[in-house]
Design goal:
This protein has 179 residues and is mainly α. Helices cover 65% and strands 7% of the residues.
Length: 179
């Protein structure tokens, strides 16, 4: 879904084709490699968006000794659907890492709705973590089991604290109009 939001947001700015987007993603930081986005994935999602009627081919660029390039533009339906796809990204995200594309395109949605979604996500995350931390396992453990338990509790506590901190920071930045 984030690839589709990325494509639609790029088409909000202007027409493009899959190979051009792939080039843009690899310079100056190889975002394509970091996100595991291949050219074939881009073509797949361009095709999926086209079948949904959210984008359409508008021209074909022909170059000698090169494959034809099919250029796409966003449709009215695509402009209408982009905010819904962004909201879905926020709803389905587990942490800030899953929200990068949505946050980068927050200008296409109502920030108050995003704040509401993130506050709900934060409340649910904290409640879930509280239930886990209050679980009382009284089964007998040997020293290695206790060491493993301490290691895992430390890891997951740090991870949880990190997630909570950055969700709170994202909410704060959005509320202040910084994103």
């Amino acid at each position: 879904m984030s690839i589709q939001v990325f494509i639609l947001s790029k088409l909000m700015v202007g027409k493009t084709y899959p190979y051009e987007l792939k080039k843009q993603m690899s310079e100056p930081i190889p975002l394509d490699e970091l996100g595991g986005i291949t050219e074939s994935k881009l073509y797949y999602h361009f095709d999926a968006l086209s079948k949904q009627g959210l984008i359409e081919p508008v021209e074909i660029i022909k170059e000698e000794h090169r494959p034809d390039k099919q250029v796409f533009a966003i449709t009215a339906k695509g402009r209408e659907e982009l905010p819904n796809k962004i909201y879905k990204l926020f709803k389905s995200a587990n942490d800030l890492n899953d929200m990068v594309i949505a946050l980068a395109n927050i200008k296409y949605v109502d920030s108050e709705i995003v704040v509401t979604l993130l506050k709900e996500k934060l409340t649910n995350y904290k409640a879930h973590w509280e239930r886990i931390m209050n679980f009382d396992n009284t089964s007998p453990r040997d020293e290695k089991s206790e060491n493993l338990n301490d290691l895992l509790v430390g890891y997951f506590t740090t991870k949880s604290d990190h997630t909570i901190h950055w969700l709170e920071e994202a909410i704060r930045q959005i509320e202040q109009g910084n994103l």
